[in-house]
Amino acid sequence: MDASAPAPFSTLIRTASHEQHAEAENSSFMSDMLGGRLGVAAYRRYTEQLWFVYRALESASGALAADPVAGPFIRPELARTPQLARDLAHLGGPRWDAGLEPLPATATYAARIAECARTWPAGYVAHHYTRYLGDLSGGQIIRGTAERTWGFARKGDGVRFYVFERIGNPAAFKREYRALLDALPVDELEKQRVVEECRRAFALNTAVFHELGRQFPLSA
Ligand code: HEM
């Protein structure tokens, strides 16, 4: 192997967001929620925020499906909004979405995704990566904790968001996904911008956690 060859883009994007990953993971809201110190109301509020985020990601799928940069990433088996709707109906009843509003940080996050989807497909890829590859990885830890803490049926209503029924082998899927990242048809400068957008995506997630933390302030 050529030692001077640049690292694959999938490695670059992962290492570039490493610190921010730790920050998101260790935010007091996440720690309290996953440490079993918060009630199901906090989990519901968190899941509601995901609804707005995934609606922004997935309402753009149709328009981007044929895009040469973002299109290859759009896979129907990743879609999460139907599962979120089921989880939220379980958590909030059939009228779960009546009057539902995002937190300000969530609105900002969803607006940025929508903006990228409209104007910058490679930026959309940064947001796509940050959410879906995370859900396929650490999301599985969150599911187990949620099942134990709030008594949801294993892989059932309440945690369907974390269950990718049509992805039999998540490790293989992630490998394919990383190969797509490595083959992203953009130049080096644009790749740098995508890495920056990925950092921004992490920061937008952390901002949502901070607002949730203020609503459910156990660690304070
Ligand atoms: C408590 C919460 C979290 C836990 C326990 C967690 C845990 C993990 C774990 C164990 C991995 C696998 C690492 C590897 O394969 O080397 C991972 C990967 C990942 N996580 Fe998280 N995570 C959490 C929160 C988040 C958040 C909030 C985001 C961003 C929205 C995120 C985004 C990612 C991404 C993008 C990857 C894939 C990295 C890659 O392989 O390229 N995670 N996470």
Automatic annotation (TrEMBL):
Sorted UniProt keywords: Heme, Iron, Metal-binding
Binding site for heme b: 14, 21, 129, 178
GO biological process: heme catabolic process; heme oxidation; response to oxidative stress
Pfam family, one: Heme_oxygenase
Gene Ontology terms, MF aspect: heme binding; heme oxygenase (decyclizing) activity; metal ion binding
Keyword Amino-acid biosynthesis: no
Alphabetical list of CDD domains matching this protein: HemeO
PANTHER family xref list: HEME OXYGENASE
The protein's name in its UniProt record: Biliverdin-producing heme oxygenase
Species assigned in the record: Streptomyces cinnamoneus
